[in-house]
Amino acid sequence: MSVTTPIALLSLLFALTSCAQDDKPKEKNRKDKDRGELTMLLNGVEWQAFSARARIRENILKISGSKSEGSYETKVVRQSLELSIRDYAGPGTYEASMTPMGSSIFLVVGLNTQSETEMEKEVLESLTKAKHMLLTGAEIVIESDNGKEIRGTFSFKRGDSSIKDGKFRAIIKANKPKD
User: Fold this and answer.
1) CB of 13 within 8 A of CB of 109?
2) What is the pTM assigned to this prediction?
3) Of 47, 24, 46, nearest in space to 35 by CA
4) How many domains does the chain have?
5) What is the pLDDT of residue 19?
6) Distance CA 41, CA 48 (A)
7) Which range of residues forms the domain containing residue 73?
């Protein structure tokens, strides 16, 4: 396991525990908000993210999509896809890579949320049982970038693992200004 894998696992776990209910709209405005789209065939199984976001910082493009399954009152399974591109310069063909903004990875983490007293134990167990697939080398084709959203396709094959027919329309998230 590389050094970046535990960091990616911890990042996803933080998102899982702090935002597990984010997949449920809390008000009409939030429900109507454009969340983008990201779909793929993951090892032959259809997969669709709840949202798709893009962030560009220092010529690095990071595209991410995730979804949660289950109930926050019992067990939550969080699935996340992240694709990172170095030297992003607009539409074109790129190779997914590891960047300072994170790895290109597909990650699944489950967490039993029934008992707060067991939460720390569950967090540690979910980290050790997390499933991940590094996507370094995946082909990403950026078809358009209008400053508000990025559209493209992606694919990946390594051994028995594959992603086919990957498509996204990711909403560009504004970077926070540096202090």
Assistant:
1) yes
2) 0.71
3) 24
4) 1
5) 44
6) 9
7) 4-20+34-172
